[in-house]
Specification:
Chain lengths: 199, 199
DNA sequence: TAATATCGATACTATGCGCCTCGTTAATTG
DNA sequence: CAATTAACGAGGCGCATAGTATCGATATTA
């Protein structure tokens, strides 16, 4: 799935897996330190102890590299607590931790903004976004199967209602998100989800 | 308030107001066309028919320029319909129109991501964000004064709950936002706002 | 008219981009 | 054990951009 590692089936020197990881790690470090705009392929190569050409052999440009590095960031793991509220609280607490501990909050908005002009990159980023939303979709589906939610609910819109407040909060106000706030946001969202019928 | 126009109080040739507008317009055009990463001061100068030095005389770098151009984008105008639902629907419809007709959706996430590494720029962007949220805050305050909402409501969090779903929807899924969806999102959010007490 | 400050144009160094060549190194295949 | 194959590091190349500096021309105030 990763663009950089097309394992060589035939003879010849194989691509270094260590270099691959070093490049992605350096990319994430540098994005966190200096931001996307100041990031350059040459800097990534220097930081990862790899030749500049090696990076270009695997990724055509800076953006796909950052997208793949982004895909290496931790994703949500969906626990099955038997009820929707606890599932959502657990998921959003994980999300808040990831936002606090990784450069996700710095990478994702920039990628989203840049992909608006590049359908190719958008096609690269879209499945990543979808994969990160999947655990929430599944938690909602389990709630539907338990009749906690009506069967005709709009799952995608529900995910937006649940994640949206936290995302905007950390994006534009830069506010810290505490566990108590997570519970309040979940409850706030849940009171409205029933209105999000699909028809 | 704008960084570029410090009107000359004494003698000497004053700064061209036309050039100022041309530069900001060209910046917005180029951001919409090629994105923030591909944007360069030289391109802005060429597009606006202005010398490169003129741009540097007014803005120290690319980011403050884009931030000021961003501040020129239309803001929300708060109507007073006498009830909260209609106020919010009107505001969010305006917001959806702005997202559709201007490069706001492409500029804002990139700025937010870049400002995460630069406190100086963050200080430049923060008041712009606050000003754009103000009409929603005012609509909520009117609702409180009409006893539509409890007086101890968390206004900022309420704004996040109302705007968040739309913002994430247009940011990460790129979905079109139709007027009907706006009404549903407003209703979805309103059912939960009462839980957002400030204590 | 004199003083002042911005203007366009241009040159300048430094750096990044993306591509390329080259000799070297590490794996598969016979 | 050789021969083949492919990725490797090092480094050069042309081009574009960043940001600064200089210059004479121009527009405004005193």
């Amino acid at each position: 799935m990763s663009a950089g590692t097309l394992p060589s089936p035939g003879p010849g020197r194989p691509r270094s897996v260590e270099a691959h990881r070093a490049i992605l790690d350096a990319t994430l470090e540098l994005v966190a330190e200096v931001g996307f705009d100041q990031l350059s392929v040459a800097r990534v190569a220097r930081r990862s102890g790899v030749s500049k050409a090696t990076v270009y052999r695997r990724w055509p440009s800076k953006l796909p590299l950052v997208i793949e590095a982004f895909s290496e960031l931790p994703t949500l793991e969906a626990p099955d607590n038997g009820n929707l509220v606890d599932d959502l609280i657990a998921l959003l607490r994980q999300f808040a931790e990831i936002l606090r501990d990784t450069p996700l909050a710095r990478v994702l908005p920039v990628l989203a903004g840049e992909c608006a002009h590049d359908p190719e990159l958008s096609a690269l980023l879209a499945p990543q976004i979808k994969a990160r939303r999947a655990p929430l979709i599944q938690a909602l589906e389990r709630a539907v199967s338990r009749s906690e939610l009506p069967p005709d609910i709009d799952l995608e819109a529900s995910v937006d209602v649940i994640m949206g407040p936290l995302v905007t909060r950390m994006l534009f106000t830069g506010a810290e998100i505490e566990p108590d706030n997570v519970r309040r946001f979940v409850e706030a969202a849940l009171f409205g989800i029933n209105r999000l019928r699909s028809d």
